[in-house]
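Hi W.,

Here's what went into the run:
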Amino acid sequence: QSALTQPASVSGSPGQSITISCTGTSSDVGSYNLVSWYQQHPGKAPKLMIYEGSKRPSGVSNRFSGFKSGNTASLTISGLQAEDEADYYCCSYAGSSSWVFGGGTKLTVL
Amino acid sequence: EVQLVESGGGLVQPGGSLRLSCAASGFTFSSYAMHWVRQAPGKGLEYVSAISSNGGSTYYANSVKGRFTISRDNSKNTLYLQMGSLRAEDMAVYYCASLFYGYWGQGTLVTVSS
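Here's what came out:
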């Protein structure tokens, strides 16, 4: 199972919006509404930010939003804040009990 | 509050074995498929293994197939990963997780070195 494709890095200034893409295939992202996004700060466990493509868990800021179209999912963070600087990973169910992660995107808040 | 607490990590020589445990609480463990995900130092997340809620079905990434065994004891709310024939490339933080619901533990570090 090949990893989902994410940009290695993105950056933005405080207050701006950024979008991270996650491209898979018709066997994973395109087939299931089970794309999730995780935020990971250095030395910490991943934290769920978006599940089922566009749903936010309780307690996650509404500045985070998710979207999926075809084989590509995206995470948008609006009103960037310094605390948003972290690594972000997408994850998709790929059938037959398998899941696949993206390679991760490092977000820098300038 | 959902909690997943991994244990059992440590230093092991190449070719050695180690068993990781993950104690779950705060949710109906026996109703959830569970997963192991690892992260090598400075690298991204890698899906390792999965087990169905009743333990009857398992999945392994090609990188660990034949060397790792996932199991669970629903009476103890505990997930396990038996790792054998360990290699340098298995060195990572191992996370226990329920990927359908986004629950993750804090991870346990496995170091493979002579």
